[in-house]
Amino acid sequence: MSIALVIPDRKLDQLQQKLQQQLPGVAIEIWPDVQEPEAVTMAVLWRQPPGCLSQMSNLKALQSFGAGVDNILIDPTLPDLPLARIVDPMLTQSMLQYLQGVVQHYQLRLDEFSAQQRKQIWKARSPRKLQFICVLGLGELGQAVASHFAGLGFVVSGWSASQKTLAGVQCFAGETAFSDAVGDADLVICLLPLTALTENLLDQQRMALLKPGVILVNVARGAIVDDLALLQNLDSGHIAAACLDVFRTEPLPTEHPFWQHPAILLTPHISAVTNADTAVAQIAENYRRSLAGLPLLNLVCQQRGY
Ligand code: GLV
Q: Per-residue pLDDT tens for 53-91?
């Protein structure tokens, strides 16, 4: 019995070593150099190439190496097996820190001052009025983010597919409540999972429902935002600025207009990175559970997509 790490384009020696320490005696193989595919009972996946699991005929469980699973479910050859994701307090902490920094960046008008600096303009301005935050997506991370900003005294609304209840957060659910959820927000944070229902959710029509001068932050998945609609709304000033950590194609292609847009702050998908130590503990526990026939921790509903 063995585990296959199917995470292309990454150095996996450390992950392999750490997992080996947790599971002595279990072979941890790095795809594509899997010596005995039929011995693999669990595959740890991130952007796996379709078809790569076809030789692993005794797989019992699938484990995402991240919080999201969209890049795993996209594979039409994925076997219908229990799939778990990483839920990690350190990942949540990293997301909170990132968003805290982003909110302060815009409150202090650092975006405008850095534009002024490039033109050698000396012009003082008072901080931006930024009181109302809307969080789209109230899953594990969305709830933590909404509660965090509510705790800091921001007025916070949240929007999700199913109704949620969160202390200090006005929660909205479903399509018809979208405009109420976002209508007053000075800053909108997208933390939705990418599914067939959320792809291009932030299109021209929904962007028109945002308050003029809003700031949009996307830390979920690039494909939830219609790139062209975002550029048009930034150019018209309806959306004042956007902070983007995720993109349809990553790395963002060099010719993409987001790189040069003056109203876009762009980071290379670093808002919440999987911590190898906590991930390893969850992967090892799920491996033991799969062998014992117990339900995996942090199971994902494949049909729903999260
Ligand atoms: C990162 O984007 C993740 O889903 O873990």
A: 999 999 999 999 999 999 999 999 999 999 999 998 899
**CATH top-level class for 89-266?**
alpha beta
Write out the DSSP string of 138-189: -SHHHHHHHHHHHHTT-EEEEEESS---BTTEEEEESGGGHHHHHTT-SEEE
Say if 2-88+274-292 and 89-266 have the same CATH topology: yes
The answer to whether 269 is a known catalytic residue is yes
- If you measure from the C-alpha of residue 267 to the centroid of ligand 1, how many angstroms do you get, rounded to a whole number? 14
List, for residues 168-204, the tens digit of each pLDDT value: 999 999 999 999 999 999 999 999 999 999 999 999 9
CA distances from 80 to 29, 77, 153, 264, 291 (A): 22, 9, 45, 40, 17
Residue of 128, 206, 221, 289 with catalytic role: 221
Of the candidates 109, 53, 54, 97, the residue with the CA atom closest to the CA atom of residue 240: 109
Query: Considering the chain, what is the average pLDDT of its residues?
Result: 97
Cα 239 from Cα 40, distance rounded (Å): 49
Distance 68 CA to ligand 1 centre (A): 5
Total-model pTM: 0.94
Instruction: Give the Å distance between the CA of 270 and the centre of ligand 1.
Output: 9
Atom of ligand 1 nearest to the CA of 86: 5
Please state which CATH class domain 2-88+274-292 belongs to: alpha beta
Task: Enter the tokens of residue 79.
Answer: 């076997």
Higher pLDDT, 181 or 276: 181
Phi-psi sector, 293: left (phi>0), alpha (psi -120 to 50), beta: left
Domain extents for the chain? 2-88+274-292, 89-266
Cite the beta strand spans of 38-178 per DSSP E. Answer: 40-45, 61-64, 83-84, 132-136, 155-160, 169-173
